[in-house]
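quick one
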Amino acid sequence: MTVKSRSKRDRVSSLIDTIPEPLGAVRVAAAQPDVRVITIDNPPVNALSFALSEELLAAVEAAERDTSVRAVVFIGANGIFSGGADVNDFATEPTDGTVTIRDVVARVGRGTKTYVAAIDGNALGGGFELALACDYRVATARSKLGLPEIKLGLIPGAGGTQRLPRLIGAQDALQMMLGGQSIKAADAQKKGMLDDVTEGDVLVAALALIARVVATEPKRRLSERTASLGVANLGLFATPFVVAQAHKMVPAEENGGFAAHKLIDAVQAAIELPFARGVAREARLFDELVRSAPSEALRHVFFAERELSNIPGLPAAEALAIHTAAVIGAGTMGTGIAITFAQAGIPVIVIDPSDTAVEKARATIFGMFKYQVDKGRLTQQEAWKLANSISFEEDFAAVADADVIVEAVFESMDVKKDVFAKLDTAAKLGAILASNTSTLDIDEIAAATNRPERVLGLHFFAPANIMKLVEIVRGKATSPQTLLTGMKLAKLLRKIGVVSGNAFGFIGNRMLFAYERQAIELAEEGVSPARIDAVMKDRFGFAMGPFAVADLSGLDVYRHIERAAGEQLGRIPIVERLVDEGRLGQKSGAGFFRYDKAVGKGREPISDAHVDDLIAQLAGEADIARRADISDDEIIARLTSTLTETGADLLRTGVALRPGDVDLVWIYGYGFPPHRGGPMWYAEHA
Ligand code: NAD
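structure w/ nicotinamide-adenine-dinucleotide:
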């Protein structure tokens, strides 16, 4: 059979003729004589790959041809409806013979039977688009629906941008797709996205619904509706006004907003064009995006995350169970880490001898959970329960039952060694002992115990309950089981856990020190810190510029690390000088920039001529030539290539395992713009 030379239709019919049911990843069964159930079974997430779409289309065609069938139910195996398209397929240009989920959705949309999506678990991306093409949707209460394509720099490409606005109004649909967040079944039902939500069996609910509707309203195609704007009537100008506002609210095309602008265009088409033309517009926009540099970069990030759990050469071992935790130190980091445990449902005991620190920690925790209640993210009871799962103790004996203990005391080797020696006595034998140190040697810390194989670094980022990154530092004695438990813990805490070797500054800070130094060199050559920050933030897309980052971390901390590191870092005169002047950064109201309580709650950097003069003076003393011709491009090139070169060094020396790991560290820990793929990807693809 020469499949490729035949049209898509021929190919499908030949499949139906030649492949007996059940087909590979799609199972077909009759729930009742006139109801056909098509089960999507492609573990783990029922991805709608090209291959699966072909089977699905064949199953739909067969149902359409069978005159005894009145209704078709789609359902997912593996505890999920479908996680959406197979991201691997985006790299393959579909040929004439390829069947994609777009074809399946289009066929269902034109279908003559009553189609029902019976959703249990997530219905995301193409999975939700398939559900939208159905006449009815029912779901279990635990299910979630969403169109997260924007996170991969894409838009829904199987009719989602046209059907969702017709279902819930353009404004709500746009908001949901721009955020890429999924929505819980109960909320989805309130918005009219689901016809029924059940606590019981979803197939039973789907069959009951069919029995109710099949005689009265068997077909209910969204494609036959018009999309309302979903906002108060603004007359003739409503659509252009809302569209213009939407374009203004998302980042610029070249700065991470490429897909967002296309999404707005697609939704505009849903309001203004007939369905078929809107779908054609969506397809064109999708095809353009799937080949775009930002989407390729975001897909690289997606795959890099999936690679994280693969540690080459790691002997097989089983991660330990984690039921309870302890944190040593109730400072900035300890408090954030304790909140992170609580939010993951792991009760945590915090040890700190300082009453002042404990009082402050309690206030922070209370404030954080209150904020969640105010925002409607938690109920009073949930917040109360979470806050109560964090308890404070003075005595190390209280850690006796903890499965994992994270130390977050002062950054001093003596203090840490003392803490680990005490933990060695107080912790149970199987416990994992972790340090949150930023720069100290994990092996030296581990040597303070009689169980170095149980010790590793878990380097969280501030604020620990918000930042997604954790560097998992593998000491020379860290056992495979300890490492795997650390990796499992990162997942439980919903963090991105990147394994790093035990080298000064690990992956992230090692690169940060080189990057900050390069920023200071640029300043010494005559570019103001304010300009450098503006270029890296506004033009390149970092969350913050390098000088604002230094001010936030604290210049005293920086100087302390510099001095402790000795040869490895060397002293930076401007940092020494600013600290001598009492300019410690944001916390003291001045560092490289000034901060004013009246401006952005004291967090907004304000440029300071005094610092510019100081840098010029120090540059003069060091005989550094000042240049007036440093372009924005040069600023970006020098700073990003410093990151890449340092990252390459870390890869060469085995501190980082893969370029993708370095990219994840900088995206999730340091605000590198994700649409540029991280420093290593950027160097190859910019
Ligand atoms: P911090 O000064 O805010 O808190 C340290 C806390 O440890 C204090 O509350 C202190 O009372 C307590 N403490 C000191 N000795 C103790 C002991 N023997 N037993 C119990 N508690 C003790 O410091 P931080 O900013 O939270 O930093 C803690 C650790 O986290 C350091 O190793 C630091 O390098 C690392 N870290 C900090 C950041 C950051 O941005 N602040 C980021 C990543 C890692």
